[in-house]
Structure to design on (155 residues):
């Protein structure tokens, strides 16, 4: 069951939606990450949102969603247009993973102190360079991101 409401202010509508639905019966993880992302980067959001509601883990998830967006749109990325975004139907011939699955992995990377002070796009570029380096070092062995080798949800 999903609880909805309408409010004049879209930010507060998202905030209430997130609080109610993530605690009563969770919304799909991918959607929760996107809501966190919007709340973190919304310039009109009150400061207490990040301080009181986010916490480190949720902040990492929000930042990870932004990094995944960069991975999905940058031409140099091996994930370019190959990440299925929340609400989009998964296409086996195009997508290798979902944004929520990849965001979970990226949020684990963000736990490392060395990455905590990097800008989102800077870390996205680092990950792109990493995956492209793997491909160049192991060209015969790395059909690493293709539609046959999907990146699965971590348990």
């Amino acid at each position: 069951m999903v609880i909805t409401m309408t409010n004049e202010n879209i930010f507060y509508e998202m905030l209430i939606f997130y609080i109610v639905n993530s605690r009563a019966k969770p919304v799909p993880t991918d959607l929760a990450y996107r809501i966190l992302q919007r709340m973190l980067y919304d310039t009109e959001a009150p400061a207490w949102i990040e301080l009181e509601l986010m916490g480190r883990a949720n902040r990492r998830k929000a930042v990870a969603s932004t990094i995944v967006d960069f991975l999905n749109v940058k031409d140099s990325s091996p994930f370019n247009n190959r990440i299925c975004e929340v609400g989009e139907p998964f296409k086996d011939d195009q997508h290798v993973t979902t944004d929520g699955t990849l965001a979970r992995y990226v949020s684990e990377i963000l736990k490392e102190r060395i990455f905590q002070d990097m800008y989102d796009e800077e870390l996205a570029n680092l990950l792109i360079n990493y995956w492209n380096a793997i491909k160049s070092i192991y060209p015969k062995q790395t059909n690493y991101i293709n539609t046959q080798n999907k990146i699965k949800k971590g348990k």
Remarks:
- The chain has one domain: 10-137.
